[in-house]
Design a protein that fits this description.
single chain, pyruvate-formate lyase- activating enzyme, two-stranded parallel sheet, globular, alpha/beta
Amino acid sequence: MAREPIGRELSAEETVELVLKAGRYVWNSLPEKVIIGGGEPTLNPKYLLKLVALLKRVDINDVQIKTNGYLLNSWLLKELKRLGLISFVVDVKAFTGDVHEWYTGKSNKRVLRAIELLDEHNLKFYVRITLIPGIVDIEEIRKMCMFLSHIDKSIPFRIYGFSPEHAREKISRRPSRSELLRAYREAQLYLDDVRVGPDPETFKLEYTEIRDDSLLERYAKIDEVSRSLNRNWNIKGIPMSRILPLNG
């Protein structure tokens, strides 16, 4: 969940209008896929349901929700499935209760239950976790994989490395490649579909991002840090003010 409100507030209708105008501005077409992330998109379930319904109405059918899982429940999953949404990413912070509570201030019981519910409702999803040396370590990842394997060994599992340069607090260091490989091999003992996220120093990241004008300075700092870590960082930022005035 976001620690502080940032950006600007848009209605579901305004958000879809922004998506459509941005698609025309960047690609001259509808976006092929929309990912609803955060912050945390399930904080306002009525807004989320309306947004998904409106996206479907304009023929954007590939919609995915990225969530920490804490507020997912059977009612919300049934409603989202009824609207045709079947794709989720669950960003799990930690498996051990004490570690999760230290990290987020919340118990992870509802998060783990949300994963079970996604499986029970036959929804497509994958689970991701960040390897944070000394905090969310390889043993923590092993426990998470054991839990998932008892639900379904075929649940896709993704491991990402902690990036201290982008963190609000320098709680740990970047994991080494050997640590990520060890985590990968450990996860493979329990699950069939395991991948390690791209190497932040070498992978090519190139896309266009619509950015709220009030956050341009913050984004500029993020870009500066990211380019210092990865010469292939190539994010084109477009101020939202260029998109919203467009007609149609």
